[in-house]
């Protein structure tokens, strides 16, 4: 389907903002096997359960005794700043050309946004978005009437399923920062009803041991478990390590996993490897766990994300992720004609 064809299809408003429609959402890319979008609809109105443990220690440089097959770094890429949405700045790690997707993960952005910039009304279908605030606050509104504000340390886990149109905008003055992760849904779940899981910072499971602090967004670490249900089995851990500390984190062997460094410098996988600095993404090899050392004089903060690969075809066009080209074409038709999940968009716009 060409750009010209899509612009001529029923339901399009002649004044649609085309630079928003074709902005640089990730598209179909290579997959490791081991956001602003104007709605044409409203323009018409002109357990899984798993177990793994984490062991911490300080000051040990010996060969890794904790895993039979320790994971190592197979790819390292710096996430460079780029413009997205309406004036937002993001550092895209997963989903960029050098890496592509890491099944089941489609994209990870570290965003930095100040008013009046943001991500006005745009749709999603076929996957989940996980928004985790680092600084400031973001307000969310959708066409079903769901709205709320998440602040530093808060989490929103949104399953778009068959269709959502929503906005994500800064909720205050200054710079608002966070991470947004896109997780693919299996073919059997792509057309489920949308749902939300939202946690305040105080309700996110957390623990500290031997100079290592962890917030368990999804999965389990240090013997504590997140209450978040992950339809695609996944783990999402936010670690902060004091200088001189070490952590050894188990990961199910069949899962893909990566690390994104938020702050500081760390050594990952092999104690003899050079340190990796902030804003780098590290894709890990297969194995039953990963070790991390903080040998710097400053704190190290990173997220470890892992998940069970779906091993299904991925056809992606912007914020729509399906399994076939025909399903993408059907999604565009549903979106333009406000049907099959997008019915509520006919007369909806988010409030300023």
From TrEMBL:
Q: Which CDD domains does this entry report, sorted A to Z?
A: cupin_pirin_C, cupin_pirin_N
What does the entry list under GO cellular component?
A: nucleus
Question: PANTHER family annotated for this entry?
Answer: PIRIN, PIRIN-RELATED
| Keywords for this protein | Nucleus
Q: Where in the cell is it found?
A: Nucleus
Domain of life, per lineage: Eukaryota
The protein here is known as: Pirin-like protein
Database matches in InterPro entries: Pirin, Pirin_C_dom, Pirin_N_dom, RmlC-like_jellyroll, RmlC_Cupin_sf
Similarity field: Belongs to the pirin family.
In this protein, which residues make up the domain named Pirin C-terminal? 236-340
- Could you tell me which residue ranges the Pirin N-terminal domain spans? 90-183
| Principal location listed in the UniProt entry | nucleus
């Amino acid at each position: 389907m060409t750009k010209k064809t899509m612009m001529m299809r029923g339901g399009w408003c002649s004044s649609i903002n085309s630079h928003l429609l074709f902005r640089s959402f990730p598209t179909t890319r290579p997959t490791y096997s081991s956001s602003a979008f104007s709605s044409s609809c409203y323009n018409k109105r002109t357990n899984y359960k798993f177990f793994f443990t984490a062991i911490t220690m300080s000051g040990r440089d010996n060969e890794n005794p904790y895993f039979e097959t320790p994971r190592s770094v197979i790819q390292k890429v710096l996430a460079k700043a780029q413009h997205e949405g309406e004036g937002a700045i993001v550092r895209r790690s997963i989903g960029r050309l050098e890496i592509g997707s890491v099944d089941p993960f489609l994209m990870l952005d570290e965003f930095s946004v100040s008013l009046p910039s943001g991500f006005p009304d745009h749709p999603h279908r076929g996957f989940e978005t996980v928004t985790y605030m680092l600084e400031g606050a973001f307000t969310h509104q959708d066409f079903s009437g769901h709205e709320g504000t998440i602040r530093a340390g808060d989490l929103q886990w949104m399953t778009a399923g068959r269709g959502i149109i929503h906005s994500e905008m800064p909720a205050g003055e200054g710079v608002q920062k966070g991470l947004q992760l896109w997780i693919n849904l299996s073919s059997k779940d792509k057309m489920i009803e949308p749902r939300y899981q939202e946690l305040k910072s105080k309700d996110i499971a957390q623990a500290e041991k031997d100079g290592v602090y962890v917030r368990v967004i999804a999965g389990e670490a240090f013997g504590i478990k997140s209450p978040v249900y992950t339809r695609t089995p996944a783990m999402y851990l936010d670690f902060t390590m004091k200088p001189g500390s070490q952590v050894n984190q188990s990961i199910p062997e069949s899962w893909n996993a990566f690390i994104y460094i938020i702050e500081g410098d760390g050594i990952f996988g092999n104690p003899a490897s050079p340190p990796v600095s902030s804003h780098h993404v590290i894709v890990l090899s297969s194995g039953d766990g990963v070790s991390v050392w903080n040998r710097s004089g400053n704190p190290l903060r990173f997220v470890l994300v892992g998940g069970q690969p779906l091993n299904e075809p991925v056809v992606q066009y912007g914020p729509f992720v399906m399994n076939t080209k025909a399903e993408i074409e059907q999604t565009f038709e549903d979106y333009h004609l406000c049907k099959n999940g997008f019915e509520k968009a006919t007369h909806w716009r988010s409030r300023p």
